[in-house]
Amino acid sequence: MDRHFDEELKELKEKLLSMGNLAEKMINQAMDGLVKREPILFNQINNWENEMNFLHIEIDDACLKLLALRQPTATDLRFITAGMKINSELERVGDQAVNISQNGTEYLKEPQLKPLIDIPRMANIASKMLQDGLDSFVRKDVELAKSVLERDDEVDELKDQLFRELLTFMISDPTTIKRALTLILIARNLERIGDHATNIAEDVIFMVLGKDVRHHAAEKPRSPGV
Amino acid sequence: MDRHFDEELKELKEKLLSMGNLAEKMINQAMDGLVKREPILFNQINNWENEMNFLHIEIDDACLKLLALRQPTATDLRFITAGMKINSELERVGDQAVNISQNGTEYLKEPQLKPLIDIPRMANIASKMLQDGLDSFVRKDVELAKSVLERDDEVDELKDQLFRELLTFMISDPTTIKRALTLILIARNLERIGDHATNIAEDVIFMVLGKDVRHHAAEKPRSPGV
Asked: Cα–Cα distance between B174 and B111 in angstroms, integer?
């Protein structure tokens, strides 16, 4: 392979990893602000979002240039289009972290509703899914990507559990409604981060195997006689 | 231009329009079920989602093949990568319609909470945004795409308004909490459809002008002395 092209692909990979690091930092910071009840910690998230928006455009441009100038085929083509998709997913993870910080700011205006255990737990799982999704991209590791898909259910379950608990709060004491609602929104933000990590893992599997796992095979109608 | 390639691009355009039609049908059907209070109408949405999942894979494959075999540059390259992105957005609109039908099924298990006026209004705006976003793609019409971006605020405002109204409901009468919560989730589903339409419009502007509008220029730090 052209050595220069090889360098460019490596650079693209590194940029995507920086983007991933930024996304994780944003999620951690949002949880920190929430658990320590220090809304001032949320401020940093907006700075990182600006950084992320730049990286997003930069990576998209780099991919377009690679497609136009290198005219890649097969593996490289898939790598670059997967990179474009992963780039979009990561940018949306950043948006979710911003949403968490906005919801968090509202939440911290009132006294604590309940000790936050499940929300940071959801964040940990989602964050690890993201990390492993990107790792699986870099290492082209299908097994790791598959393990990400499996963990998405865990996040959803935690969210459902929390949802039911908060509903009970709200029904028994209407003064908790606003805060409970905000926690539900935060849980949904985390759920969506898990969804983005899942999308990344699916893109990786597609990239490596050239097979589409984005819609379960079981849903596909069979041709007659097959 | 190679006439066969021209045909392939036209075919891609048509497939994306079919995908868009399907997305709109799903939104309308979800609203129909909700307003007429006939959950049976939601069933059709799952069938359409299966159809949509197929189209999603088909379009993605078609784009990859065009990139690999035609090795397009400039305008065509941008058209195809925009197509890939729009394809993903539309698939997610379908997911939101499915979510609305699931939330709607829950909602219709209990008596009516309030006449549904704002929710179908949000759906109408979001659906028109989607239509115009796709139209702007086909016609490469930047002005139309820009008008889509402007309408996103309308959807968000309607959602905030509804959110406040439902909060009042919940606080004054705890028996409304579950239903109010479900309506809030549906409003958020519609808000996300508006977001996807916005993403499409941004992709179109980028495709036509080669300029990135995805992150507002005002947010960009300036280089010193510029």
From this structure: 14
State whether ipTM is beyond 0.90: no
Per-residue pLDDT band at B219 (split at 50, 70, 90): very low
At A120, list the tokens.
Answer: 């940071």
Nearest Cα of chain A lies from the Cα of B141 at a distance, in angstroms, of 22
**Domains of chain A from N-terminus onward:** 3-219 (1.20.58.220)
Q: Helix/strand/coil (H, E, C) string of chain B?
A: CCHHHHHHHHHHHHHHHHHHHHHHHHHHHHHHHHHCCCHHHHHHHHHHHHHHHHHHHHHHHHHHHHHHHHCCCHHHHHHHHHHHHHHHHHHHHHHHHHHHHHHHHHHCCCCCCCCCCHHHHHHHHHHHHHHHHHHHHHHCCHHHHHHHHHHHHHHHHHHHHHHHHHHHHHHHCHHHHHHHHHHHHHHHHHHHHHHHHHHHHHHHHHHHHCCCCCCCHHHCCCCCCC
pLDDT per residue as tens digits for the range A66-76 = 998 888 888 89
User: Residue B1's pLDDT is what?
Assistant: 54
Q: Is a pLDDT exceeding 50 seen at residue A218?
A: no
N- to C-terminal Cα distance for chain A?
A: 41
Closest residue in chain A to residue B192, using alpha carbons only? A192
* Nearest by CB: B53 against A73, A81, A215: A215
- Model's pTM, two decimal places? 0.84
Q: Do A68 and B53 touch (CB under 8 A)?
A: no
Whether residue B144 has pLDDT greater than 60: yes
